[in-house]
Amino acid sequence: MVLEMRSQENSLLKISDLRVDYKSYWYFYHVLNGISLNLKQGEKVGLIGESGSGKTTLLKSILGILPPQGKIVSGDIIFRGINLTKTNNNILKEIRRKSIGMIFQDPLSALNPVFTIKEQLFEILKWSSEYKKQLNEESLKEAAYKLLTEVSLPEPDRILESYPFQLSGGMRQRVMIAMALASARELLLADEPTTNLDVTIQDQILKLINNLINEKKLSLILVSHALGMISKMTDRTYVIYGGDIMEEAPTKKLFKEPLHPYTKLLIESVPRLYGKGIGEGIKGNPPDYRNPPTGCRFHLRCPFASEICRKKKPELISIENRKVSCHLYTEN
Ligand code: SF4
After folding, report:
1. Within a domain: residue 50?
2. Which atom of ligand 1 is nearest to 303's Cα?
3. Could you tell me if residue 49 is inside a domain?
4. Which of 52, 94, 184, 231 is positioned for an S-S bond with 188, CB 3.0–4.6 A?
5. Helix segments in the chain, DSSP class H
6. Each residue of 140-197: pLDDT tens digit?
7. CB of residue 282 inside a 6 A radius of ligand 1
8. Interval between CA 302 and ligand 1 midpoint (Å)
C-alpha cells in the first residue's frame, strides 16, 4: 500500500511553498502566501501568530478538509513521500483514517449534536480499524472503552450514551482527543485545543495531550495563542503572520532571543502577572487578504519598515539552526 512509502531523512511532513486562496462571491482572499514547513518523525512543532494569520487554514490544508470556498492554488504537502495535494481521494481518506488525527478548536461544533458519542466514536473506530466495518459491537465497545480510559474519562457507559450537549466542556474536549487518537497513529494536529476551557481544565488537557503523544510516539503540530503552552510542549516553533512564515527556530531559542520584529512584539504582548504587567499589544490590524500588502506583509505594522520592505518579499534565510524572513537580516 502507498501508505508504506518512506520519505527521505526521516521527514514525516514537508510542506513547500503552499498557497491557499478563499473565494467569496465578490473577492479572492489570498490567505497562505507560500508557506514551507518541515516535521520530522517524533518531532513536536508549534505554530504561533495572531488570529486570522492562517494557522487553521494550514492544518486544514494538510488534512484536505478546507471548506468548499478554499483552494490550494500551488505548493506541495508531502506526507511520508505522498504528495497530499496531488494524490487521489481514497489515499487521502486512508491517511485521515489511519495516520493523521486532528483536535479541533471548538468540540461543540466539531461533534455532531444529533448523534451520541457512541455513534460518533464507533464510526471513527470502524474506519480507522484494520478490519474496517467488520468489527462487531463488542470489540468496538472494547476499543472505545480503551480510548476513553486513555483520555481519563470516567463512566464510559454514560459518556457513550450521551449527546455532546450533555457533557461539560472539558469532557467534550477529552472525547475530541479520543476521536483524534483513533486515527492519529503518526501525526496529531491540535488546533487551539484548550481555547474554550477554564484555566484549571486547560492545564489537565495539556498534560493529557503531552503524555499521550509521548506514550504513542506521535509527532505533533500544535497551534496556539498560549505561548506558555507552546514553550512547554514543542521542540521547534514557526511564527506565522499574514499567511507567511516570519521565523522558525528551536522553541527555547525563539522565546529567549526572537529575531523577527513580529516575533518580538508578539512575545512582548503576552500579559504577565509580575514585572511588565499587560503589554501594549501590536499596533494596527492583520492584513486584508483581499488586497494584501506588497513586499513584507508585516510592513504596515513594523516599526523598522523601510522602502525595500514595501517592495520586496524577504526570503526565509538560515541563521545557524533557525530561519528568519526579514530584510534586517539580508544584504540589500
Ligand atoms: Fe519589518 Fe521590513 Fe523586516 Fe518586514 S522585512 S519585518 S517590514 S524590517
Report:
1. yes
2. 1
3. yes
4. 184
5. 55-63, 89-98, 107-110, 117-128, 137-150, 156-161, 169-183, 199-216, 227-233, 251-256, 261-268, 307-311
6. 888 899 889 888 888 999 999 999 999 988 889 889 888 888 888 899 999 988 877 7
7. no
8. 6
